[in-house]
Amino acid sequence: MWDLLGLDETDESVYRYDVRRPGRAPSQVARSTGLSEQTVETSRKRLIAGGLLREEQTGGIAPTPNGPAMIAARLRDELDSEYAHRRREVGLLQAEMTRLVNDRLLAGPHGSAPDIDRLPSSEAAAVRVHELLCIARNDVVHAEPGHTAEPGDFELMRPAKIKAAERGVNVRVIYPPTTLASPKIQHAVDDELRAGISVRTAAVPATTLTIVDHSVAVLVDRRGSRGDQTMILRDSLLVHALIQLFETTWIHAKDAMVALPRTEHGDDRSAELNIDDHLLLQLLGEGMKDELIAKQLGVSVRTIRRKISGLLNRLNACSRFQAGVLACRRDWL
């Protein structure tokens, strides 16, 4: 282990002797260790430079009392620095590999993919949407027709959407009113709202639509007589047209919390707040700025704003002040 200090077995022998019998002359150390006086003096110089020995006022050599602790602290600092350097290298490598994979997903399996790429099945489309949600950076919009809200499709999409929202991605979803009649979907929508996803309900086209970062759109049409028709669009004009269609529908859509059925006891489902929601409402009530709230909760400012937007939607409020009033009326505070 002495090699970690840049020392060898000779230095170890001299140090062990000086610790047991401090103040001895080089000749005495040489006779006891079988080394030459010159070797002892050279070794002592290295040990003094390393902080393990010190020269006293009387001229003798003695061990430095806090020398081992200083050496250990220095080694730990060096190891920590090397570890941090390696971690940074690994992080840069991961970022580079992730960028390559993400670019491949956005561009298609063959790099320069065509503007319209057909997929073999709706299952393949669901997998591709899941991949795109995992790499989404800015925004995701999704419209789900009622007749395609199968449990399998829904369960595959929901965790990925929630994780994207938790990363600070702006996620908006439209479901038709018939879909929200399902208790399973109602509970799932509650989870999405708690994650900060904006959910509205409206009559939507009979085609499942997902658009990621304004660049890639995935369409699934189950109305064809020859089975599911699925495709990925990367053409900027087509994607832009689909975004405009979604935005028009979104403007006229109704907030999902208003449309969700009441429970058997007539309680509003939106009253089920988690701890983060309660704390967020309290901090908002104290007049805290978004940046301070984000710092206190340990999340990004974008995430806080998404959660605030989700609370406003759940309360059907037009402003934060109105949200506070409505929250008090519902005993949320």
Question: Can you offer a commentary on this structure?
Answer:
The structure is a single chain. With 333 residues, the chain is α+β, with helices and mostly antiparallel strands. The protein is 54% helix and 13% strand. It contains 13 helices and ten strands. The chain has an eight-stranded mixed β-sheet, with helices on both faces. A two-stranded antiparallel ribbon has the order 1-2. A hairpin with a 3-residue loop joins strand 7 (207-212) and strand 8. It is elongated, with a radius of gyration of 33 Å. The two termini are 61 Å apart.
Which band does the percent of strand residues land in? 5-15%
Low-confidence stretches: 147-152, 262-271
Provide the helix percentage.
Answer: 40-55%
Rg, Å, rounded? 33 Å
Number of H/I helices: 13
Structural class by secondary-structure content: alpha+beta
Report strand order across the widest sheet.
Answer: 3-9-8-7-4-5-6-10
Shape: elongated
Q: Distance between termini?
A: 61 Å
Number of strands: 10
The ordered H/E elements are HHHEEHEHEHEHEEEEHEHHHHH
What is the average of the pLDDT values?
Answer: 78
Please give the largest β-sheet: 8 strands, mixed
Secondary-structure blueprint:
Layout: H1 9-20, H2 26-33, H3 37-49, E1 53-55, E2 61-63, H4 67-107, E3 116-119, H5 122-135, E4 139-143, H6 151-166, E5 170-175, H7 183-194, E6 198-201, E7 207-212, E8 216-221, E9 229-233, H8 236-252, E10 254-255, H9 256-259, H10 275-285, H11 290-297, H12 301-315, H13 320-329
Parallel strand pairs: 4-5, 5-6
Antiparallel strand pairs: 1-2, 3-9, 4-7, 6-10, 7-8, 8-9
Helix pairs in contact: 1-3, 2-3, 5-6, 6-7, 11-12, 12-13
